[in-house]
Amino acid sequence: MTSVPDRARVRLTGISSRAYEHPADRSALVALRKLTGFDTLLKLLNGLFNERAMRLNFLASGVKVSERQFPHIYEMLRDGAYVLDMEKVPELFITQTPLVNAMALGTNTPFIVLNTGLVDLLDAEELRAVIGHELGHVLSGHAVYRTMLYNLIVLATRIAWMPIGYIGLRAIIWGLEEWYRKSELSCDRAGLLAGQDVEASRRVLMKLAGGSRLAEMNADAFHEQAREYDAAPDVRDSILKLLQLQGNLHPFAVVRFAELDHWVASGEYDRILGGDYPRRDTDRNASVGEEVRGAAKAYQESWNRSEDPLIGMVRGAAGNMATVAGGLFDRFSNRGGGSGGSGGGSGSGNSDDN
């Protein structure tokens, strides 16, 4: 697929973040937002001092992107916010470091940070996809829950001497880390929707794995590498893959590449560009039980595609879990009247690495 010129980029009017969120990401967000006041409380606690201090730090040590500083990046930012129909264009800072990374920070007034290592590595359309990725985190409002994960990790280190409490806390952290990784898959999709250039989004993930020498890489071979990783023939390899994920908040590059390709091949990307997507004004009607069932179905479909021997042993369990969990959430929502925060699309920031 060739690069899409600016004039051909489709604006996704009123798009909800539910349109691009991975089902596991979306179900967690919908459930948490149904807890009345939960977002507000965490945003208040997180925004009292940390957000102001972070912004002041980048204002002092980085370069604030504008019409006069990095104007080409500023136009990408404005264009991405326009395509995703965001109410406000977040601030963006460039900071000097060779580390290839990008972040979206803050809750009340979110802003984006790009490292020079990333800016130097990517071409214009690739950079547009990364900016769209970070805008996706802002639109989804991921920061509140990522802040919760960070605080739990800090707490776990302090109570490591209490075996029972520590083990229970680590179980919660493991679940949140899994959600965190799925939120990265969500925003890879957001980056594609903002840039609307499939090949550019694929190149970003290849460069994150292999650096700047793109001429030495091949997209088909990279996809085959993802299949090789998935189909490790020994159960011992499966266990090693699980252990390698512990403490890792990002899916591996080949996994992200394969997941994004699968999402495009499913037709969902084209349907969204054609105007078939959920709108923000319907977010409050999102059903927690339905989203939980959707998440379990997504896991089951992923497992059905997988050749991993360990996954083969537990394949089929997701459907049963979905029925039970979805029913429980439905009963809980009916008892509580289903009131609460929105189900997505109107979040106000996040704290995330690309």
Key attributes of the depicted protein:
single chain, 354 residues, mainly alpha, five-stranded mixed β-sheet, 16 helices, 5 strands, 61% helix
How is this structure best described in words?
Helices cover 61% and strands 5% of the residues. It is mostly helical. A five-stranded mixed sheet has the order 1-2-4-3-5, with helices on both faces. Helix 1 (23-33) crosses helix 8 (163-195), helix 2 packs across helix 7 and helix 6 packs across helix 8. The longest helix has 33 residues, at 163-195. It starts with 22 loop residues before the first helix and ends with a strand. The relative contact order is 0.18.
End-to-end CA span: 24 Å
Secondary-structure content class: mainly alpha
By DSSP (H or I, 4+ residues per run), the number of helices equals 16
Major sheet characteristics: 5 strands, mixed
Note the run of SSEs as H and E: HHHEHEEEHHHHHHHHHHHHE
Low-pLDDT segments, ≥5 res:
308-351
- Per the principal axes of the C-alpha atoms, what is the gross shape? globular
Cα radius of gyration in angstroms: 20 Å
Strand content: 5-15%
Helix content range: 55-70%
Q: Strand order across the biggest sheet?
A: 1-2-4-3-5
